[in-house]
Every structure is written in structure tokens, then in C-alpha cells.
Amino acid sequence: MKHLMIALGALLVVALGTQAAHANLKKEYCSSQEYYTNSGADDGSKYPHLHCGKTFLTYSASSGKHYNFVVGDALKTGTAGSACSKADEQSADALKDIIAEVCTDDSKTCTGC
User: Fold this and answer.
1) Cα separations in angstroms, 62 against 33, 59, 80, 96
2) In angstroms, rounded to a whole number, what is the distance separating the alpha carbons of residues 111 and 44?
3) How far apart are CA 112 and CA 48, in angstroms?
4) Any idea what DSSP says for residue 22?
5) Which residues lie below 8 Å from residue 14, measured CB to CB, with a gap of 6+?
6) Which is nearest to 70 in space by CA: 31, 15, 28, 16?
């Protein structure tokens, strides 16, 4: 019984560590900024930019075109790939690199990145 409790405790620590690793996307990928432009500025009025929260990442190509590629614990690979393609069209290489990094960190392939 003691070994079972130790094993369950270790499993809980690993599970919480994994959740904590993705708990603050804003901090991890956007330098703790709400908005992250291609130049690294925190400016939501300049497009394109990433809109960053603790549990979401959105590529905003313009005021009317948004790609919500991370929502909660879910990476939407198709949307991330579309965001990468759009970032490439807009010569937003730094933003494309961040989107690609998110895909790589989640061990996913996002076509277009």
C-alpha cells in the first residue's frame, strides 16, 4: 500500500508539472505581454500580432482576421499552420517562428510552419 501511495504521489507531481509547463502561454511565448508584434512590441493596435493569454494564443493578421491556434490545453494544428502561412505572407518571421515553436513544443507538426 505504501508503494502504491508513493507511485500515485509521483504521478500527481508529474501531471501537475506538465500542466504547469503550459499554464502560462503569455509568459512562455510572449515575454509576459498581452500583445506581441513582429518587432516584439506590446502593441495591440499594430498588425500582425499575437494576442496572448495564460491559456490562449491568437495570431491576429488584421482587425478582422484572427487565428485562435491554442485554446486551453488544445493546440489546433490546422489553425496554427494557417497562421504560419499568413505570417509568411505578411513577412512576420518572428511571429511565424513563435507559432512554429509552440507546435514543436507540443510535439506536433503544423503544416506551413
Assistant:
1) 19, 9, 16, 15
2) 26
3) 17
4) T
5) none
6) 28
- Give me the numbers of helices (H) and strands (E) for the chain, helices first please: 4, 5
Distance CA 50, CA 14 (A): 30
- The identity of residue 97, as a single letter, is D
Report pTM: 0.80
Q: Residue 19 in contact with residue 13, Cβ under 8 Å?
A: no
- pLDDT, one tens digit per residue, over 44-82 is 999 999 999 999 999 999 999 999 999 999 999 999 999
Q: Do 110 and 81 contact (CB within 8 A), yes or no?
A: yes
Query: Which residue matches cell numbers 507559432?
Result: 99
Q: Indicate if the alpha-carbon torsion angle 77, 21, 94, 53 is positive or negative.
A: positive
Residue 109's pLDDT is 93
How many alpha carbons fall within 13 Å on the CB side of residue 109?
Answer: 1
pLDDT score at 22: 58
